[in-house]
Amino acid sequence: MEKTYSLVIHPSESILALVKSIKEQLATEVGWFNSKNSVGHITICEFKATEKQLENIKNKIQKICDTLSAVNVHLNEFSSFPNGAFFIAPDKDSHKNLKHIMKQFHKSLLIPNMLKSDNPHLSIARRLKPENLAKANKMFTSIDLNFICDSVVLRQFDEQIKQFFVIDTLKFGDNPKSNIIQGTLF
C-alpha cells in the first residue's frame, strides 16, 4: 500500500521551538489555521511510495546526501504568498544555497508524480484569509535566525492525525566527487 512521504530540511531545535511559539501566538490572534500543528520545515518534495519503493528511495536520498556539503542558512524576513501562506524567508545567499540542495534531489529522485517545492521558505501558516494574513504581517515584522543545514529529514504522513512524523534523518557527506546515477526509481 502506498503512503505519503515528504523530504524536508529541519532547522535547529531552537528555531523549531521559536516557530512553534510564533504559530501559537498567531493562533491566539486568528484562531486555527492550516499548518498550525506542523513542525517547522523547508519542503523539498512530497511523494507516494510503497514500503519496498521507499527502501530504494532512501538509498537514493543517501547517495545524494553523500555529495552535499553543509551550508549556513540565514532566515531574515517574514513574508507571504498570495495564496495565504505566511513564512520566514531566507536571505539571498541562503535562498541560492537551499535551492541548489533542493535541485539535487529534484533532478535525481525520479519519482512519478513527485510534488517539488522550488522556493525555499520556513512555513508558519497556509491558506490564511486575507484579513488574517494582514494580522500576521502586523504581528511579526522582523526576524534574524541562523542554522547549519547539514541533513535532510524524511517524514511519513499519518492519516489518523493528519500530520507528518520523522522516520529518518540523512546527513550530508561532504563528498562532491561521489557519483550519482540518474534513473527511475520505480
Briefly summarize what is shown:
The chain has helices spanning 13-30, 51-67, 92-108, 130-139, and strands at 3-9, 42-49, 71-80, 86-90, 115-116, 122-125, 145-149, 151-158, 163-171. The protein is α+β, with helices and mostly antiparallel strands and 186 residues long. A hairpin with a 4-residue loop joins strand 8 (151-158) and strand 9 (163-171).
Profile the largest sheet.
5 strands, antiparallel
Helix and strand sequence: EHEHEEHEEHEEE
Output the CATH homologous superfamily.
Cyclic phosphodiesterase
Q: So, CATH architecture?
A: Alpha-Beta Complex
The pLDDT mean sits at 93
Order of strands, main sheet, comes to 5-2-1-8-9
The share of residues in helices is 25-40%
Q: How is this structure best described in words?
A:
The protein has 186 residues and is of the alpha+beta class. It has a single domain, classed as Cyclic phosphodiesterase (Cyclic Phosphodiesterase, Chain: A, Alpha-Beta Complex), CATH 3.90.1140.10. Helix content is 33%, strand content 31%. It has helices at 13-30, 51-67, 92-108, 130-139, and strands at 3-9, 42-49, 71-80, 86-90, 115-116, 122-125, 145-149, 151-158, 163-171.
